[in-house]
Amino acid sequence: MRIGILGAGMIGGTVGRLWAEAGHDVTFGVRHPERLRSMLSGLGGKARAGSALDAVAGADAVLAAIPFRAWPGVAAEIAAALGDKVLLDATVPDPPRDGAFGDAALARKDGVAFAVAPLLPRAKLVRTFSTVMWTTLQSQAHRAGDRIGIPLAGDDEGAVALASRLVSDAGFDPVLVGALSQSRRFDPGTSVFDSGMSGPQVRAALGLM
Question: Which of 8, 80, 81, 111 is most buried (most C-beta within 10 Å)?
Answer without folding.
Answer: 8
